[in-house]
Amino acid sequence: MEPAYLDEENGADWIAVIDNYYKCIAYFTGIDNQIPLLKENGKIDSRCDGVLSYNDVIIFVELKQRAQLGSDWIVDAELQLRTTITHFEASEYAEHFKIKKAYAANSEHPKFRTNQSQRMDRFYNDTGYIFRIENRITLY
Questions:
Q1: Which of 33-37, 113-117, 120-124 shows the lowest mean pLDDT across its residues?
Q2: What are the residues whose beta carbons fall under 8 Å from the beta carbon of 41, sequence distance 6 or more?
Q3: Closest CA to 4 of 26, 27, 25, 32
Q4: CA distances from 88 to 16, 83, 84 (A)
Q5: How far is C-alpha 118 from the chain's CA centre?
Q6: Which pTM does this prediction carry?
Q7: Terminal CA-to-CA distance of the chain, rounded, Å?
Q8: Cα 24 → chain centroid
Q9: Helix or strand or coil: residue 81?
Q10: For the chain, how many helices (H) and strands (E)?
Q11: Which of 75, 114, 133, 139 gets the highest tally of CB atoms within 10 A of its CB?
């Protein structure tokens, strides 16, 4: 599996789209396959694909490219986001961001039809991060 990366040329390969209408200076950092997050026992922990940051905003992103039935892919994505966020919140960098978000994106399900409001509310209550299940990330 390839590490997450930015690609401005090959739209057919995109899993998620970053809508940067206001042309914010944003940074993308790949996490999965690049930054090992360790469990207490020393083994590598689950982690999301990457993180976008700009101004005082941080957005953790998990990318899926599979057509799993039901919401199994969302459960996997949410777990990876939660784990990464837990590690991040334990660091001194977390206090530098006022707006915190997490996105689960799947190229096979760009618009998820099932209502996931309870899941998104629970995620926010547990983590303090706004959680969205969609593949269009708008920067503003």
A1: 113-117
A2: none
A3: 32
A4: 22, 9, 6
A5: 18
A6: 0.86
A7: 31
A8: 19
A9: helix
A10: 2, 7
A11: 133
